[in-house]
Specification:
- The complex is a heterodimer of chains A (329) and B (531).
- Chain A is α+β, with helices and mostly antiparallel strands and 329 residues long.
- Chain A is 32% helix and 19% strand.
- The longest helix of chain A has 33 residues.
- Chain A is elongated and about 95 Å long.
- Helices cover 67% and strands 1% of the residues of chain B.
- In chain B, strands 1-2 form a two-stranded antiparallel sheet.
- In chain B, helix 8 crosses helix 13.
- Chain B starts with 17 loop residues before the first helix and ends in a 39-residue tail after the last strand.
- The chains are: A alpha+beta (329), B mainly alpha (531).
Chain lengths: 329, 531
Amino acid sequence: MPQTQLLPEQASTMAPRVDALYFFLLAVAAFFTLLIAGLVIYFAFKYRRRSKNEAGVPIHGSIWLEATWTIIPIIIVLVIFGWSSSIFFSMARPPAKTLDVYVVGKQWMWKFQHPDGHMEVNELHVPVGVDVKLTMTSQDVIHDVYIPNFRLKADVLPGKYTHMWFKATKPGKYHLFCAEYCGTNHSGMVGWITVQERAEYEQWLAGSSGQGTTMAQAGEKLFKDLACSSCHQTDTIGRGPTLVGLYDNKVTLDNGSTVMADDAYLRESITNPRAKVVAGFQPVMPSFQGLVSEEGLLQILEYIKSLRTTPSNATGVVPPPAPAIPAKK
Amino acid sequence: MDTAATPHSNYLTDGYSLKSWLLTRDHKRIGLLYLFSVTAFFLLGAFFAGIIRLELLTPAGDLVSSDIYNRLFTMHGVVMIFFFLIPSIPSVLGNFLVPIMIGAKDLAFPRLNLLSWYLYTFGGLFTLWALVTGGVDTGWTFYTPYSSSFSNSNVALVIVGIFINGFSSILTGLNFIVTIHKMRAPGMTWFRMPLFVWAHYATSLIFVLGTPVIAITLLMVGAERVLHLGIFDPKLGGDPVLFQHLFWFYSHPAVYIMILPAMGVASELVAAFSRKAIFGYEFVAFSSLAIAVFGFLVWGHHMFVSSESVYSAMAFSLLSFLVAIPSAVKVFNWSATMYKGSISFEAPMLYVFGFIGLFMIGGLTGLFLAAIAVDVHVTDTYFVVAHFHYIMVGGAIMMYMGGLHFWWPKIFGKLYNEFWAQVAAVTIFVGFNLTFFPQFIVGYLGMPRRYHAYPPEFQLWNILSTAGATVLAVGYAMPAFYLLHSLFKGKRAPSNPWGAKGLEWETTSPPPTHNFETPPVVTEPPYNYAK
């Protein structure tokens, strides 16, 4: 790689937008630095002391000047604020249909799970031009997924799901750093994102190991092994509420409030079931905190997600021919 | 010390025994005790920085192991922030000057002042004990749950050291506030106070309001480590991000603890070396208070990528932009003060020029970080490292050095070698830029901070940075020689070597024990050079 680079390569739809704002900020910074430095140097020489007892001309201030140099910077920062916030909104809101990948950070490695069952360590393959959403959590301390070429970064927290989405625009191999200090081998927690043309990506999907069991299938097996299925039936006769059609829908709780059944709610209901009990049910479910790994939790989550349409899809089989492309939903 | 030649008694000659120093209640002597300890911690912090920069000369982590490296950057941060930057200007220059500048005999609570030096020193020694018994590897930010549940290093010990030191900050702030309210000389109204005193007043508010928060927060980390309470550990129902809120609620204002006193020094120096009243005195005074107050409302900008909600991120972004305005106003005011001044270029003024330049770059790159979309890319990279070094080293240390040079003749009654002082000021400025400017570039390229080893494409910028650090080290070493030399061989300083205004220049150099031979009465506005 050339050593004189001043910008990392732009490899996502976000990168050019962030760089444009960056250049605007550079221009603003350069303008004010040169303005002030120029004035200071000019004054310093023009008004340099000529005799030992010379004093300056007493000028105590000017409301007009103070107002000007307060209001102009305020206007400039408001422009930057608006511009930056609009980009940030795009970063924070993933498109409706995405290719989902699940990430678990642990001291000191990255584990990636694809819905179709592929597992990768410190390496993630994604197709070019497709909206990819990462659902991330940590098994131990706070980590941070940072892909400089995408201009994206997000903390990966224990006990919580965070998200990042991107659309890669250029095939290639890009660094994925851990950017939140996480202990001894923090600087070794480095992975790669391999962005491939679609055909190449399909080939990789077909050719690599880990085929056979999808994440949802693994989740379903775990669901049964942990005996979740003895209470959560696919109809309404179980001791717990049915999970069919639950994901991304509103749930009414026993205190009358409602909550969105999203990743965070489902995770909480597994690790701390009594926090938000569904209306009409007794708080009898035990906590599964520590009984199921972060990867397992994500598999169960993917299984519950697969139940959101019809019970017939409960096996979580992703319909071919384009399993990885968001069209599946 | 060559005190025999001093014709009258002064605070330095008022007793020579160790006891007369270690039990002194004289704010000036306590200021010198601080000067001694603060310098020792600076040397220690700089030593750590040196090894870090050498390690980063090559991409491979070949000089020290990753464990040692993590301990080094943690101790560099802890020592420099808690034991150098935060106490430096307030405890050394502020202690010495605030009472004199308002025409008081001493601080309001002299014994408390001595106690705060002891707390500071014991806190520091405690931290050093933690260092020699294995160190700490969490980073100076102590993020949970790493610090509370995972790190196997001396976290609890270091926390106790910082906790003890926190009381020192609180007591110093309390002392300044009461002194400034109650002990001003007749005629010294609020708007006749030097801007240095205003800056210390604002800083003291942060000391008193902010320090208890960090103290309690760190205690919570300690309690979590020992008792597993589940405050921060999600496995026990805690919230790992809670710590960040509490931590930055203090630690962002702490940046202003470092920079506000520096701004106070800059105001004094610009006025003295332009022989002119500060342009817009009231605006400069009030902007100090505005920074102190608004500084408490922006902590969330450290957490844009830690799962903060979109709308709170935006609120913190907006507030962070707005807190930049009073800082910008001050820079404009200092520049405007030079207009039609009578400007001379002695070493302290060279530090002011350096300060304005570095603080501008530090402040303007703050806008990059307040802009969330850019912050997402650069946070936790070397861009941030460069930014805060420009503010905290480029701002605070430049003005600590400038202030030390400006008041050195007053403090010790001796003149130092002006030529070498100017060479040092220029060397520090050049070395500083060479060290930290490349870090903006390597940061935007994506090099994360706290990396012991890094991909080879980042090496060029690290080589430049390490080269700069070498120049910077030479720059910092020079004053040690000519300032010490001045104590023994320097010419006797007159009361007012710079022809400056302010009560401290109306008493002898060094001042008598009670600061003034006759109690001063103030009859004119500050910086009244054109009288």
